[in-house]
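Dear Dr. L.,

I hope this message finds you well. Following up on our conversation about the binding site, I have prepared a predicted three-dimensional model of the protein together with adenosine-5'-diphosphate. For your records, I am including the exact sequence and ligand specification that went into the calculation, followed by the structure tokens. Please feel free to forward this to your student if that is useful.
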Amino acid sequence: MDILRRAKEEGRKVLTEIESKEVLKEAGIPVLEARLARTKKEAVALAREIGLPVVLKVVSPDITHKSDVGGVKVGLKSIKEVERAYSEIKRSAAEKVPGAEIWGVSVQKMAPQGVELIIGMTKDEQFGPVIMFGLGGIFVEVLKDVSFRIVPLTRRDASEMIREIKGFPILGGYRGEPVDISAIEDMIMKLSEFAYKNEDVKEIDMNPVFAYRDKAFAVDARIVLE
Ligand code: ADP
Ligand code: MG
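The resulting structure of the complex is given below.
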């Protein structure tokens, strides 16, 4: 876990999306890989390599909520759009967070529409690390439709916490195809194992995770250290 060690040495508490995804990938959790472009030219080269359409996001140790500062541009379908998005992200982020250290922009594939989930880890004063699961968007923000289990989880815990949220029928195909629930269970189990082994991790946020008929992966990720 070189990334965790390096961030700690540098006195950084919040890892970037790119770093967080690398750490989670090493822990066996599927993520949508994001790569760093330090210049517009690099962003274009990466977009060509990854294949359009792509998503660009601001990469800064000082910015945790990227879309709040105009730092996320999705569905970029041409090189021209990539170039424009790069400039707009940098300008907007610098304007909204004056003095922010901006490392560049991350480039990643535009993921097809899936069912949006949230999977996270926080530390409870009494119980220590707990895993949270919920459906994304209004389900979490408005309805607070989430479930919790204490780390370390059993497979049965993971299975139950998915099934006990009110929105569970949506995963079973209420609004389309059913999603791969065992892939979601796997992600929860891997996250529990990672949290159990890494006491210096304070918080993990995978928001959103996209779930599909045959897989699930984290589209955004954030790790906060103690
Ligand atoms: P933040 O939470 O820091 O504002 P996110 O990375 O979560 O930024 O991006 C904001 C939203 O943009 C996500 O909730 C998701 O709906 C969409 N999004 C982000 N990355 C992708 C992607 N690679 N493919 C498709 N949609 C994406
Ligand atoms: Mg997010």
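In brief: The mean pLDDT is 95.

With kind regards,
A. P.
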